[in-house]
Design goal:
- The chain is mainly alpha-helical and about 110 residues long.
- The chain contains 6 helices and 2 strands, in the order H-H-H-H-E-E-H-H.
- It is globular and about 45 Å long.
- This is HTH-type transcriptional regulator CmtR.
- InterPro entries: ArsR-like_HTH, HTH_ArsR_DNA-bd_dom, HTH_Metal-responsive_Reg, WH-like_DNA-bd_sf, WH_DNA-bd_sf.
- GO terms for molecular function: cadmium ion sensor activity; DNA binding; DNA-binding transcription factor activity; lead ion binding.
Length: about 110
């Protein structure tokens, strides 16, 4: 029987994924379209080893999946709703915090 993770655990996994700028860039790139690791590494300007570590983290968080395509592997968001969630989250954060920088929030212990 499959058990559902508590809401807090699910949100914490999503937060861990978003805590790193490279993983954010990866998620946004995969929101646009599925891609092969070599293309993602070139697009993000990082080594394939570094990319592999970040993709492993995103897989472990359940946010991306690896899809075999012949001899290659393509990555995509695990669910199309994640793309919408990223768009909604980005829009909400921009709308709410348009007049605050993260540095200001960090001074208050928020970031």
């Amino acid at each position: 029987m499959l058990t559902v993770a508590p809401d807090i655990e699910v949100l914490a996994r999503f937060g861990r994924a978003l805590a790193d700028p490279i993983r954010c860039r990866l998620l946004l790139a995969l929101r646009e379209a599925p891609a092969h690791p070599s293309d993602l590494a070139d697009r993000l300007g990082i080594s394939r080893t570094r990319l592999s570590n970040h993709l492993a983290c995103l897989r472990d968080c359940g946010l991306v999946v690896a899809v075999p395509v012949g001899r290659r592997t393509r990555y995509e968001l695990a669910d199309p709703r994640l793309g919408h969630a990223l768009d909604d989250l980005r829009a909400a954060v921009v709308a709410v915090a348009a007049d605050r920088s993260c540095a200001e929030a960090a001074e208050k212990g928020c970031c």
